[in-house]
Design a protein that fits this description.
Blueprint: H1 2-9, H2 21-36, H3 41-66, H4 76-85, H5 93-109, H6 114-120, H7 123-149
Helix pairs in contact: 1-3, 2-4, 2-5, 3-4, 3-7, 4-5, 4-7, 5-7, 6-7
Length: about 150
């Protein structure tokens, strides 16, 4: 079971790639989005919610397996956050690139309440929540930009 938890938590082991594992995890999120972007919005939301629940369990287990709080190799949180950021966008390279960049910006900068969540909520839920909020921030800005420029 530990191997399954680590597979999920590390985004199919992308969290082990060198330099900036969160960016690699976000790229896995984009790849998943490529497979999900044509499904109905309700189905998309259900997949993201299921991945959040599974990811929370896997991230919490991974913390215990590697004996470290919020280990960098856990990237399922970036995958979920990236999927949130890319929800309901058009299939256009610039929209995807903007969603990727906005999510990474908020994930790294951690404006309130992202930083607060990151430092005050622990375990699998804490690992996941800050990236969910970063994804929601990116989603809001991206949707606003799409609305303004459409």
């Amino acid at each position: 079971m530990d191997k399954l938890f680590m597979f999920i938590a590390t985004g199919a082991y992308s969290g082990y790639l060198p330099k900036a594992p969160g960016t690699w995890g976000s790229m896995v999120g984009v790849l998943l989005w490529l497979g999900l972007n044509r499904v109905a919005p309700l189905t998309y939301g259900a997949v993201v919610c299921a991945l959040f629940v599974i990811g929370t369990a896997a991230a919490g287990a991974a913390e215990k397996i590697v004996d470290s709080g919020d280990p960098g190799l856990v990237v399922v949180d970036e995958i979920v956050g990236q999927l949130i950021a890319l929800a309901l966008i058009p299939t256009h390279p610039l929209a995807v690139l903007a969603g990727f960049a906005l999510f990474r910006f908020f994930d790294i900068l951690k404006p309130f309440p992202i930083g607060w969540l990151d430092s005050h909520i622990h375990g699998g839920l804490g690992i996941m929540l800050d990236d969910v909020v970063a994804g929601l921030y990116a989603l809001a800005i991206l949707q606003l930009g799409l609305w303004i420029f459409s």
